[in-house]
Amino acid sequence: MRVNLPITVFVVFTVFCFVVNDVQAHMHNMMKYASAMSPDMKFQLQWAYNDTGMLYFKMKCQGTGWCGVGFADSTVNTDGKNMASYDIAIGGYGSTGYLDDYWSDGRGRPAVDTEQSLTLIDANETNGYTMVDFMRPADTMQGQDLAIMNDTEVWIMYGAGPTDVTDTSTFDKHANDARQVLSMKYNLIAMAMAAAAEPTTAMGTMSMTSSVSATDSTMTESTPTTASATKCGGSHAVVPVIFVLIARFVFSS
């Protein structure tokens, strides 16, 4: 029986990517998250941190356009205002899920980063809300990103637009009542580690010990319009090479 080697390798690698994505999504949903919410309840952010140096985020905005969150080092932007020195993630769900990495030096539309350091996990729209799950290294080692270290305190800013982003350089501005800087500074890593250490109660949520709650992952609802996109790369890039070598050995014998 003749076997088409390129097709065989492609199929095996595709299956491998699906397995990696499924495991990654499952781990993402099993984490315990710290959370913050805007006073008007139009925005919620949940985040978790693991020992590989990866931060996982779940953001939720009222509306079905773009949803964005920004982080600014409180030692650089001392009051969190004027969109100065913000590392921004903007995503949503149009015909599919999308997410882009931006940097803002001041008021106005932020500039998209030349090097993208965000990975989209899931995006969906449910009951008039947009939810976007993504991950990024705490320290991306890139000049256009904020390095989030153990002692970094950040301001959190959010914004939401009326339409989805189709062009990263021309998307619609947020509405005046759909943007805000949250009123306190956040140590993302310390709060995520505290949330992870909290015991789970009989009700399935963790005890709350501050104005910023530590919660289980509950932001998505049933039957959403959804799209997932997880990169299968990095260390996984060696896998197709291994498959090729194995296939050549098997089919040449």
UniProtKB/TrEMBL annotation:
InterPro entries cross-referenced by the UniProt entry: DBH-like, DOH_DOMON, DOMON_domain
Domain DOMON: 41-161
GO MF annotation, one: dopamine beta-monooxygenase activity
Keywords: Signal
Signal peptide (from-to): 1-25
PROSITE patterns (UniProt xref): DOMON
KW Signal (keyword) present: yes
Keyword Signal: yes
PANTHER family: DOPAMINE BETA HYDROXYLASE RELATED (PTHR10157), MOXD1 HOMOLOG 1 (PTHR10157:SF23)
Annotated protein name in UniProt: DOMON domain-containing protein
Organism listed in the record: Acropora millepora
Taxonomic lineage: Eukaryota, Metazoa, Cnidaria, Anthozoa, Hexacorallia
